[in-house]
């Protein structure tokens, strides 16, 4: 019996970072540019892992600062302030992504280390990785893992192309139905399994009615928060939890060597799909930009905060407030303005911070890497090294995003660093540190 | 070996460092990023040192214990030298980045000063160094077992925790002194930092004679702390003003009434 497949389409997401359109920076304007702030690359269908766009908006910071001094209209001053604020806002966006990525990894590592179910060897495999790794020779095993990778990546490519086609022909209902189905499965079935394993580990006897009530509430609130409206913190928490659940499934069911090769291959695929002119993800981004609408906001982690700038009219406030609020657009009804309470207008200009977005696929693969590092061998040094490497990769990616200001894949740099550090720490650093610890030498 | 040992040793080893992080670094995203970058640089230096050690072990005689121990000592010395080299490299990188930002913004104010960077990068080095030294030991202390059952010292966990605490704080002080010395081109101070790091590491060769290794380490820690305090601009007068809450600049900067 293989695990269900419609969830496994999850990895078909794009992992991409897309900057927001930086609004024009005049010295004094009452309203910011209400362009669609979140250029999202295409979302992959099915389960929650979507690669999403990250809107790193640094330009709006300068607005608040330069607007105060109406006399200084010079570009230089605006640039100067913009640079300093760019650095500060850039740093804030990086931290706004560090925290959820760290949380997801912590959940995965904590589960792997305590619940042995997810690190047990199993003969069940996903249908996407049919070749077994229990072979006699090393060469055969390597061949099998490469074949598994090829199958997995082709499935991903097919799904992505299918999604692009669906999006191009405006089959929104189909896509939304697919997304809802996959998050249903994640929120109810996988979390039920997870809860069961946790109870088994700690030897807690719980009756079915209690579990039914708990899962029903958890899943119901999750569906509402993710696909409709809910407090931002709760939505973020649910997205982190479902990414962690998906990563745990991958860690359990992907065979050892296949997992590493798949991680490498999917970074390459991500790079190609987002940057090359005919890449499916790039086409999705461009289509979305042409139509001037955000794409499938349901499965993207968003840390958007919004404070309106002091505006002349409530209409502006509502319009701008609507644009930057993802939840408003998740009902699938396009750009339907929803009634928002008008914010208090003050004379002092407040900054509008659009926050950043990162696709859930990125969360999942980062967590798979760190979780695999934690699962194979009881070594914490490797886990720590991979963790730091991934964070630094994310930092560099966001730096590149600030420089190039276009859609960027979030996986390649982080996964490369992570893989390099995993293998080198496991083979080189670990024996060294073990010897040092045995003699209690300190470096 | 119980939860008490685990929690006790964890808090001994990481308590001061985590409180420093929470109170001074966690609020400012830029500092957090530079802390993690510092940790990354330390990691890379460790990687290189391990690579060299690994190669030397492969080509050596694996049966001879004295040779292995000699190689390990060589590895320790090499690792210390590489760490300090990477500290210098990080300093150069930060200076370049600072200069670039300064020319770009054409303003005098930088979002983060080189002294703050010294503190943060030193702490980053310290966190990573401490974590790599002690995390596996802490993980083992949760499980069942008897310490020193074969005649080794029974104070293994406790001494490891105290040593880790000293190392983390030392890295922070070394960072401050090192960057300050590089700023003022005082190469003797840089050499002193390197030598004190070597001294501390070589003192640990005496383990499990903990008196011989821990006590001098803490003495060096205290001295480096005083040196770092003075090189960061502190003085007895500042200290007095700060403690009696009369330091006007500090209060103004933090918007607190006197």
Automatic annotation (TrEMBL), chain B:
Subcellular location, record wording: Membrane
Keywords: Membrane, Notch signaling pathway, Transmembrane, Transmembrane helix
Listed transmembrane segments: 6-25, 32-59, 71-90, 117-139, 159-179, 186-206, 212-230
GO cellular component: a single term: gamma-secretase complex
One BP term from GO: protein processing
Major location (coarse): membrane
Topology of the protein relative to the lipid bilayer: Multi-pass membrane protein
Pfam families for the chain: Aph-1
Protein purpose: Potential subunit of the gamma-secretase complex, an endoprotease complex that catalyzes the intramembrane cleavage of integral proteins such as Notch receptors.
PANTHER family from the UniProt entry: GAMMA-SECRETASE SUBUNIT APH-1 (PTHR12889)
Family membership noted in the UniProt record: Belongs to the APH-1 family.
Assembly behavior: Component of the gamma-secretase complex.
Protein name according to UniProt: Gamma-secretase subunit APH-1
Gene: aph1b
